[in-house]
Amino acid sequence: MKVSLFTPEKVLIKDKEFKELIVPSVKGYLGILPGHAPLVSLLQAGVLKYLPKNSEKWESLALGWGYLEVYSEGVRILAESAETKSTLDKDKIHKKLKSILEQLEKINLEPQKRQTLEREKLWLEGQLEL
Question: What does the pLDDT look like over 42-60, one tens digit per residue?
């Protein structure tokens, strides 16, 4: 199946052939194989795992919030952000995550601020999983 992955800043994958995808949706991880039924899903931050067509080795990247569309010819992913292992600065991520966890410990945090911090926390944790 052909897969494309776009962020506002870049195209990470464009019409590449994959045997299988595992994507982080808001309802849990979804497995997608060629011939999957048409689907549109909201994605949450996490790790996207994929098996290239001519390989037996799984690869992965950190995926931010976004949308997934499965259609007859393949899969299209539109994400806020995406990072590969080679582009990550894990020390910087650990520092940001520590700061967010400290902020989340505050009892009187506004609900909208808490939700924003929780989303950022998931994004950072997804990057650290790589």
Answer: 999 999 999 999 999 999 9
